[in-house]
Specification:
Largest sheet: none
Mean pLDDT: 88
Oligomer: single chain
Length: 196
């Protein structure tokens, strides 16, 4: 077998990093940063602890990278809502589906840990502070007001209504795993909370 070229080696490294990150996200979400050891992450990833350390020098480094990724993905999802086609209701519904998708659950749980635990690295707290939740809500207010104007959403202070709406979503994310049918039902029920 011929040796791998640089591009193939880079691809293999990136795939390994993603494998480790996916495993770490799951373990951190379940056990928290204090209850997690690199050996647990390695076991979940199906690799050796030594190989894990080749990619990440500490669990703190790995945790911080996961928090950064989660916050960037969240910011991108909110910012890209303006480009989603459809009515304001369809846009909010699409965002809600993304948020409740099981693939996002672990990321959300990591962000929750950063917001509620004193044991997480200061750098992780700093990253989350760069993306304050009220600024995400502010991005949705024009969409929500447009929906109110055309009768898709209930009347009231958009900022307060959206904050309550996303508080309910946060609660749903913390529930045990649900199948896709349950998630679709949750989204439909949530939409009723903000409809006219």
């Amino acid at each position: 077998m011929p040796p791998l070229n640089e591009q193939q080696l880079d691809q293999n490294r990136e795939e390994r990093r993603e494998q480790i990150k996916k495993a770490a996200q799951k373990v951190f979400a379940k056990r928290g940063i204090i209850g997690t050891k690199i050996s647990m992450i390695a076991k979940e990833a199906g690799i050796s602890q030594g190989l894990t350390y080749r990619y990440y020098h500490s669990k703190d480094e790995l945790f911080i990278e996961l928090v950064k990724d989660a916050m960037e993905e969240t910011a991108e999802a909110f910012a890209s809502l303006e480009n989603v086609s459809g009515s304001p209701l369809e846009k909010i519904k699409e965002l809600t589906k993304k948020m409740l998708d099981t693939s996002n659950k672990h990321s959300f749980m990591l962000i929750q840990q950063v917001q509620t635990s004193d044991e997480v690295p200061a750098k992780a707290k700093e990253i989350v502070r760069q993306y304050p939740i009220p600024s995400f809500i502010e991005q949705l207010i024009p969409v929500f007001k447009k929906g109110q104007a055309i009768g898709e959403f209930c009347k009231g202070d958009p900022a307060k209504l959206l904050m309550l709406f996303f508080s309910v979503i946060s609660g749903l994310m913390l529930l045990p795993n649900k199948d896709e049918e349950d998630q679709a039902l949750d989204v439909d029920i949530l939409m009723k909370l903000i409809r006219e």
